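On clarity, I found the account of how folds are encoded harder to follow than it need be. Since the whole study asks how a given chain folds, the encoding of that fold should be made plain. For illustration, here is how one protein appears when written out as sequence plus structure tokens:

:::
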Amino acid sequence: MASCLAAAQAAPIDRAGSERLRDRIGGGNLVTHLAGKPAVEQLYEALHGVGAKLGRMNSYGWRTVARSPTPRDFDAGMLEAHKNGITPIILLEYDGSYQTLDPPQPIGSYNDWFQAGKAIAERFRPDGEWAKENGISGWGATVFSAINEPDVLANIPRPAYHDALAGLADGVHSVDATLRVVPGGFATCNSHLDATLRGYGPAIADLLEDGRLDGIDLHTYYNDRWYPITRGREFSAQTCFDRVKQAMGLKRDVRFYATEFNVARAGEWDDSRVLGKLFLSAFWDQVAVVGQDGRSPVMALAFPWNLADTPRVDGPHYAMAVTENPWSPEIRGVVLQTILRLAGDMTLTSIDKSRGLTTLTSADAELYVWQNLQGWTDRPGRALELTLPDWAHTVEIWGWEGLRRRAAATGGRNVLNDLGEGETFMIRVPRR
């Protein structure tokens, strides 16, 4: 156990963001018992449609009532994910309300969760049991999570929650210390401005501090009344992340996960133009989360909720699809398509929170993302000064609706004028 923990502690945060952006973007839920059914097929269409590469795969049947793990519940879903070129993030579902079922399903002990973590990691890690049975090499799950939004009902005892996450992490790491374990997403920093996450954050602080848990998954639903991104960085993913870490008393840098985020189509934001503009800003808020030094990227993944749903399925607030069979995107899905078409094959290189400026690069271009919103940059206005690379000859100005204009440029200092206030811009500098 000690050697596994030491290896987990030693795993460095990927500060440079060496993965392509699209390899960190995805959606959910790929529910295991719905593998091959229309709802999951629709989600795969959506993931392909926007160009994302990850999916949250959740199971309600991952153990028996007697709490014996049943990892084969994931088998069909994993095969479907592999065929679709989507890498799963595994989520073991549990809710405090299960304690009142007949028969009741208590959360279980440290050992219950250790055995589950060990069995699921052995089966589904890259080149694990399942991969060998299916003749698949170099592919599998590397991120394992459990207990989505425990802070909503808040009826799981905090010590039992701690022991469940500790057992899961130690079980997974007993198989491979480089695999990552993360608590299921939390909701209440966003919904109730509660940095303690109803006490569930501090309850697992030691597991984050010693490296058994890799990071914190925060769900963010921006809303015109309750979480207005338009009113500054107080209503940002970064602010919640920092407040939650402070409430935990963390000293170690941890990664930021976001398995659910969206901008609500409601109130003053019930307008496609407004929604498209704000979704672009919200996406880059999620991506540009930094660690303790205030500049190094720590975003592990970012999943909009829900790429596949139409208003018929999920109501109008968060549904990012217009039609089913075939899938077609609503305005937020269209904006995500544009982002990943432009930046999907790029990697994060720098984040300047003061200026509200994020930089990405690829072999073909550099991209500068400017959050020109109230409270998001110390240099608001209609002009942006950039120092471009020596090879620069053209700049492209992209907004939420697509390409707005091209202009000549040179290496060194350039000033881009006539940029709108209160919105986010993506400035692409292509190589010759």
